[in-house]
Amino acid sequence: MRSRKVLLVIGFLITWTYVTYYILLRSTGTHMTYFQKQKLVHLGDQAREQSQHSRNLNRNVIEFLKIKYLEHTQQQISSTTPRISIVAAEISNELVDQQQQEQIGEEDPSKSRKIPTQTYLSNGEPVIPILVFSCNRITVKKCLDNLVQYRPSVEQFPIIVSQDCGDEPTKEVILSYGNQLTLIEQPDLSDIRVLPKEKKFKGYYKIARHYGWALNTTFQVGFEFVIIVEDDLNVAPDFFEYFLGTHKLLKQDSSLWCVSAWNDNGKAAVVDASRPELLYRTDFFPGLGWMLTRDLWSELSVKWPKSFWDDWIRHPQQRKERSCIRPEISRTRTFGKIGVSNGLFFDKYLKHIKLSEDFVRFSKINMTYLLKDNYDNTFLRQVYTYPIVTYDELRRNLIAADGPVRIQYTTRDQYKRMTRLLGLMDDFKSGVPRTAYHGIVSFYYNKRRVHLAPNANWKGYDLSWS
User: I want to staple 352 with a disulfide (CB 3.0 to 4.6 A). Which of 112, 267, 301, 317 is the partner?
Assistant: First the structure.
């Protein structure tokens, strides 16, 4: 509204100048002296000069308004239009300052750069950015070194590091990679008010805020997929190849909502090291190096939680009976013992996770066996044909026949007792055991495939088991 008033004032001044000049011209008639004629000519020159100056000022104002407020209006962020001082020198200085800032951004690679905007390669393959979440760990260098080392294509896998906290030493480490990555910085570093009893969980509130902002910022470019990596993860040599081979599944099968590089029960003692190509469906959201689609983010972003986003995403209202893909052998491993979770599970489980050292050409493998109908018709049917054994028989290798076996559980306590004996993680999230699919947890033990499974007439997950 104020910008319209400004333009009206300028238009009025221009009109008034011309009208005044016209009246003077008509009123002088033919009886002017030579001095009067010269004065009139001089006034006319002044009027034309002022008119040109007004037009220049008008153009500057319009250009200023475009630069300063057009983007503001398009993004619908404004509530009140800022006041504008109609002073030519101030407008000119603002325009020059903005041009200088743009030149600095182009010339100085240490300044934050824009996220790459190419969303598809010339061959039709999608550009899949790696979104690395960072805060105040200078050890982010371990993660970034891995990603840069194994990345097969800078164009297809741009690395975007999103930093929260404003920690300068960490920022310096990130910027040291130059044009190998793009740094974006979470702008809202304000404190978050929480209830006194939740003060110790404030870090989880800040993480959720960071995730929401960074995913919005990245997906708004137009990417179809984003791979999320935390700053305390190492990745396997075929990390990128793994997602190249699986990303199409998320578009083909609406019952899938993520692909994860992580196996919660991926300790060396309970995985088959000879089968690095083996992948599974799981109802448990694994995280720790995972891919989601723009469509899923559009669904989740409108109700994104204020804290504990990973537990929230595992709730039935969000999961909606959808599954993820996870590997037999993890393609990520965490080295971050210190963090908001204070090393929870790290010494007992996480530091023992095996990181795959093989390179599997996942993009050359037919992945259709992981589509829901195919998977259920084979995996679920086969599991319940395997013989039931006890833990003692498995441990002492007293099973006569070779091949996979099944250990059955019917209660929560039975499941927890068995997982502790087997060295598996025993907790539940929203009633779902880690790595489970239809309640079945698959692992490798004493050179044998084992399925810890409920009764064949399983009715679904029980929230009370959490």
Answer: 267
140-179 confidence digits (pLDDT tens): 999 999 999 999 999 999 999 999 999 999 999 999 999 9
Q: How far is CA 188 from CA 128, 142, 171, 191, in A?
A: 26, 26, 16, 9
Annotated active-site residue in 167, 310, 311, 426: 310
The residues, any chain, with a CB within 8 Å of residue 218's CB and separated by 6 or more, are 115, 129, 131, 160, 162, 226
Bridge partners of 260, per DSSP, are 290
In the residue annotation, 310 being an active-site residue is answered as: yes
Phi-psi region of 390 (alpha: psi -120 to 50; beta: other; left: phi over 0): beta
pTM: predicted TM-score of the whole model, two decimal places: 0.76
Residue pair 181/146 in contact by the 8 Å Cβ criterion: no
The residue type at 438: H
pLDDT tens column, 329-372: 999 999 876 655 545 567 777 888 999 999 999 999 999 999 99
Query: Which has the closest alpha carbon to 298: 220, 230, 229, 243?
Result: 220
Task: Give the separation between CA 388 and CA 43, rounded to whole angstroms.
Answer: 107
DSSP annotation of 127: P
